[in-house]
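Dear Dr. L.,

I hope this message finds you well. Following up on our conversation about the binding site, I have prepared a predicted three-dimensional model of the protein together with magnesium ion. For your records, I am including the exact sequence and ligand specification that went into the calculation, followed by the structure tokens. Please feel free to forward this to your student if that is useful.
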Amino acid sequence: MTEVSVTKDAKPAADDLVVLKGVNKHFGALHVLQDIDLTIARGEVVVVIGPSGSGKSTLCRTINRLETIDSGAISIDGKPLPQEGKELARLRADVGMVFQSFNLFAHKTVLENVMLGQVKVRKTAKAEAEQKARELLDRVGVGSQADKYPAQLSGGQQQRVAIARALAMGPKVMLFDEPTSALDPEMINEVLEVMQQLARDGMTMVVVTHEMGFARSAANRVVFMADGRIVEEAVPDQFFSNPRSDRAKDFLSKILKH
Ligand SMILES: Nc1ncnc2c1ncn2[C@@H]1O[C@H](COP(=O)(O)OP(=O)(O)OP(=O)(O)O)[C@@H](O)[C@H]1O
Ligand SMILES: [Mg+2]
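The resulting structure of the complex is given below.
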């Protein structure tokens, strides 16, 4: 297999950006996150994989406080997650999130979608926000679509706009929760390529995905979850060629067959 030349073995210097310590969360009787300890260094790309229902999305959502936690602690760049108000809005800007569904504002143009948060949350002047939005739209390859509405774009284009919108906030870390799983096969690569480039540019990323090619070539580390726990963590080569746990072996044998 040809590996894209990402410096995946050269881990950035010890500089912790996202730290989860002893995190627990329940949904009623379901213990969905169990004693999660996870530290993500600045510039690191972590791919989270695991069976359906293992808690991957919930883990992502706790990092930008879309879900609260029952116990433990989460900090971003040395600061505990804020509870509410302006601080929370700023956290959401610092922690960009891209979901499976694109969540663009349907009644705003592509350009307006990418400008909005900059103006409202970051208080960037309109002209500057527009310039940045156009640059980012060019960077993700949809610059010519700026004046269209989301529904006029393909799924892959919409997802790239969603990435540009998150990047426009100048996030410290980007969370991706299965960003390509709602896309037609021919559109998956154009989104993965944008993510590959982001990884190469040094963005700190947490990526939930079933795209094992992306995990192999872009990730510094693979985190395998099952039943609300982190069962195994390893560099991709090691994880894919020599998984230690039975859960991971079983999971890989199922998904690599497809
Ligand atoms: N808001 C909620 N209320 C109650 N239960 C929830 C809620 N959100 C998630 N769950 C449950 O928590 C568990 C973990 O869900 P989560 O979405 O984090 O899993 P996942 O690993 O992302 O799965 P998938 O691969 O299917 O996306 C599942 O059993 C799910 O049904
Ligand atoms: Mg999920």
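In brief: DSSP finds nine helices and ten strands in the chain.

With kind regards,
A. P.
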